[in-house]
Amino acid sequence: MVKSLIREIPKAELHLHIEGSLEPELMFELAERNRISLPFRSVEEVRKAYDFTDLQSFLDIYYAGAKVLLQERDFYDLTAAYLKKAHAQKVVHTEIFFDPQTHTDRGIPFATVIAGIRQALLDGQKQFGISSRLILCFLRHLSAAQAMQTLEQALPFKDWITAVGLDSSEAGHPPKKFTEVFDRARAEGFLSVAHAGEEGPPDYIWQALQELQAARIDHGVRCQEDPELVSHLIKNQIPLTVCPLSNVKLRVFDTMQDHNLKQLLDLGILVTVNSDDPAYFGGYIEENYTAVQQALGLSDDDIYRLASNSFQSAFLDGKDRQKFLALLKPFSAPETRR
Ligand code: HPA
Ligand code: ZN
């Protein structure tokens, strides 16, 4: 029952880096199309290289892979391929991160990146009925001044972007480095989220909330080290976008059995399950749900709560949120179905 429930229940995905959905097959196709030479001879060789020891060891390969993305059409194909997979796994709403600096630093115009992604999102809505939002992430290993420049490049496209976020190397790059950038972004009407408490300490989660006014915390699994923070997350129902396969691949937890997702859920934190960089971590959203279900013994009720939390945590207006939550009704236990 649980397995078919995981497959069939409508879900929102809230933590997905579009560059992290670049499958090796598409990487080779784009490398050929753009006449770029890759340091790998085959798809198998690429997959073998995906043996990470920590966040940085992944980021080095992830940024190298993104170099095959040059033209608007490449960003379109990347996004279209993700949407097709997400739709097949009953993702009905997705909030996608993109990292413009990974591309603009290689001389690719901001407009090229966003136009390709945007067109694929519009076509995905038409073809699959999948609803979406875009979140612009600043690379925290770069300077606040560079983030501010990127924000300025984004302003002409502001109607296409719902929120700003913060990703890349966490250690040594505290959220407060970007307070001014996020202040400006909020003044321009963007919502905000931030990666925090993946490898960084609970204090970075506090900073993301207090300095950046983050509406959600991406990862956030290290919150458990600070009981006061746990109480704060529960009291204010601040969502955590947790990515189980990522956490094990990047050694945040040694094994899936060690993951704290079930504990966070039982404490009453608004936890969601997401895929982060599915092409690199061995699975999309369904594989993430399945991995935690099996390792932590999640019940049907837990799966239902995770799906419900995903819509509760999404950047939706009241009417749309209710519409999505209503889709869950047929999947709840008979006594609660009204
Ligand atoms: N953490 C930080 N930066 C990232 C990640 C992540 O999990 N994925 C892509 N960029
Ligand atoms: Zn992430």
Describe the structure in brief:
By secondary structure, the chain is an alpha/beta fold. The chain has 17 helices and eight strands. Helix 8 (144-154) links the parallel strand 3 (131-139) and strand 4 (163-167).
Total of DSSP H or I helical runs spanning 4+ residues = 17
Poorly predicted ranges (pLDDT <50, ≥5 residues)? none
- Looking across the biggest beta sheet, what order are the strands in? 1-2-3-4-5-6-7-8
CATH class: Alpha Beta
CATH superfamily: Metal-dependent hydrolases
The fraction of residues in strands falls at 5-15%
Quantity of strands, as a count: 8
Largest beta-sheet details: 8 strands, parallel
